[in-house]
Amino acid sequence: MECRVGCAACCIAPSISSPLPKMPQGKPAMTPCAHLTEDYRCELFGKKERPKVCGGFKAEPDFCGRDRDEGIRILSSLE
Questions:
Q1: Distances (CA, A) of 79 to 2, 16, 29
Q2: Long-range contacts of 1-7 (CB under 8 A, 24+ apart)
Q3: Which residues is 36 bridged to in the sheet?
Q4: Which PANTHER family does UniProt cross-reference here (predicted)?
Q5: Contact 6, 38 (CB under 8 A)
Q6: Is there a domain that residue 3 lies in?
């Protein structure tokens, strides 16, 4: 499965407990990451500042579902 353009469920649904640039306290669940661009891309992708937890997300049907809404529901239930 390829990452869906315009989805970003993995950048919205989960919480991030580690500090990251622009979000030194981490990120609460269901809050869009401050590094999410208008076109739903990560401005930290490929950079050393990107949290390790983010690198662990892979585009897989079990986590992403059929669309963004389902992906958010799945990832929220794992929170």
A1: 23, 10, 8
A2: 1/59, 1/60, 1/61, 1/64, 2/59, 3/59, 4/59, 4/64, 4/67, 4/68, 5/39, 5/40, 6/39, 6/40, 6/68, 7/40, 7/64, 7/67, 7/68, 7/71
A3: 42
A4: UPF0153 PROTEIN YEIW
A5: no
A6: no
Tokens 């076109």 locate to: 39
Question: Which pLDDT score is estimated for 1?
Answer: 83
Q: Low-confidence residues of the chain, pLDDT below 50?
A: none
Report the half-sphere exposure of 42 (CA within 13 A, side-chain side): 22
The verdict on residue 53 lying in a domain is: yes
pLDDT tens column, 65-76 = 999 999 999 999
